[in-house]
Design a protein that fits this description.
Layout (H helix, E strand, L loop, with lengths): L1 H9 L2 H34 L3 H22 L14
Helix pairs in contact: 2-3
Length: 85
């Protein structure tokens, strides 16, 4: 992961901004799908359709982990950058 951070710091600002925008848009999409699956799971659980409720709950968990995995590719804030020696 250190190679990714180093290449990100050396990249052209427009490329870094485009990468960050793409990651944020994917995160928004993943969260929307996750919420959609959660509502589907809740709706099916209330209608006692437990097989489909379990499937949508697992799908929601998968998208939650995908969102957490994608968060590590966001650039670090300026305050947290280490000084180069």
């Amino acid at each position: 992961m250190s190679d990714f951070r180093e290449s990100q710091n050396e990249a052209h600002p427009n490329k870094t901004n485009t990468l960050m925008t793409g990651i944020i848009l994917l995160l928004i999409l993943f969260v929307l799908i996750q919420v959609w699956f959660l509502f589907g799971a809740l709706n099916n659980a209330l209608q006692e359709n437990l097989n489909f409720a379990l499937t949508t709950a697992i799908g929601s968990i998968v998208f939650a982990f995908a969102s957490f995995w994608l968060l590590r590719y966001l650039p670090e804030p300026i305050k947290r950058k280490k000084e180069k020696k």
